[in-house]
Amino acid sequence: NAGVTQTPKFQVLKTGQSMTLQCAQDMNHNSMYWYRQDPGMGLRLIYYSASEGTTDKGEVPNGYNVSRLNKREFSLRLESAAPSQTSVYFCASSEGGTGELFFGEGSRLTVL
Amino acid sequence: GESVGLHLPTLSVQEGDNSIINCAYSNSASDYFIWYKQESGKGPQFIIDIRSNMDKRQGQRVTVLLNKTVKHLSLQIAATQPGDSAVYFCAEFYSGTYKYIFGTGTRLKVLA
Question: Which of A38, A57, B18, B32 could form a disulfide with B93 if both were Cys (CB 3.0 to 4.6 A apart)?
């Protein structure tokens, strides 16, 4: 089992460029999440999808959009990247209603 | 490697000693509390969770204690080993929103 797969693993953007981070899980999980991790800030929730067909804002949604494409895939889009969005982005999934959240390996984004 | 955790609080322990990592949570209605371990360059990995109706749960070399009165969670690691060196995060899950919210994390350094 691959678990949670994120692409790309690394990306460098210029200010104002757009990009989409892709995430797919093969565990048939209902819920999927996007977090960002900055040094000293821990993990902050950007957006999540409790079930297929729904998306909700997390703690830091500004500057991002998401799409729950199907049960397996949940993408995160930056429409106009800013240096403040330089971070490591993690996708995660869970069965829903249980404790364990499964994470991908992360996508390191640098915005110049 | 990963630059996460540069400014996190650090706990240094001698190899073989017990470690106690503490966390305060915010939502008294949270259903689950979870501990994650994150090694450099990797995504967080599940260690142990505890339901809100429990006070204590034990795993292999780890124990989680929950004090709902003061909204406090702790992770105890017995006989700490060099491989335990990592950043540790607590998280709370609330079934009303399906959100997982993370604490800021603690870096554990094991001294030989």
Answer: B32
Q: How far apart are the C-alpha atoms of A85 and A60, rounded to whole Å?
A: 11
Give per-residue burial for A56-82: e unless 16+ CB within 10 Å, then b: eebebbeebebebeebbbbbbebeebe
Chain B residues lying within 8 Å of A59, measured CB to CB: 101
Q: Convert the pLDDT of each residue in A47-59 to its tens digit.
A: 999 999 999 999 9
For B92, nearest residue in chain A (alpha carbons): A99
Return the amino acid letter for B109. Answer: K
Smallest Cβ–Cβ distance between A100 and the set B43, B46, B97 belongs to: B46
Reported as a single tens digit per residue, the pLDDT across B53-90 is 999 999 999 999 999 999 999 999 999 999 999 999 99
The answer to whether A71 and A28 have CB atoms below 8 angstroms apart is yes
Tokens 């040094």 correspond to A39
Q: DSSP 3-state assignment of B83?
A: helix
pLDDT over threshold 80, residue B4: no
Q: Are A110 and A86 spatial neighbours (Cβ–Cβ below 8 Å)?
A: yes
| Chain A nearest C-alpha distance from B70 (Å) | 21
Q: Residue A27: pLDDT above 60? A: yes
The identity of residue B37, as a single letter, is: K
